[in-house]
Amino acid sequence: MTGIGVSNRTYTVKRILGTPGDTVGCCDEVGRLVVNGESVAEPYVHRDLPFTSGGLDCASTPVSARCFGDIVVPEDHYLVMGDHRSNSADSVAACRGLMDASGCARFVPADRITGKVIVKAWPPGPVG
Question: What integer pLDDT is reported at residue 1 of this predicted model?
């Protein structure tokens, strides 16, 4: 599940955040992802898109690019998102900023998922 260099298009690594039948949307009042009505803490997200409660949020004009309306994950498919949200070609890339997210999501078919990440080598982080 790794590739070296920007030209490798064989595999990508994304987090599965929606499984078949789940409803996924963004955002709650503080800008968190919502899965099946529950806000999700995502401490691993790096450089998320701007969101300010009461300023640039899902009710403002314009809406925050972090926001997208509810998406129902179809059977035998998964909704995936990258940890670097401000620069991720993921399931909701075309939905960002749209409160009506019908038809914009790209799902990963179950048979295209090849493995689970068990070790992170880059970027280096704290040891211990």
Answer: 43
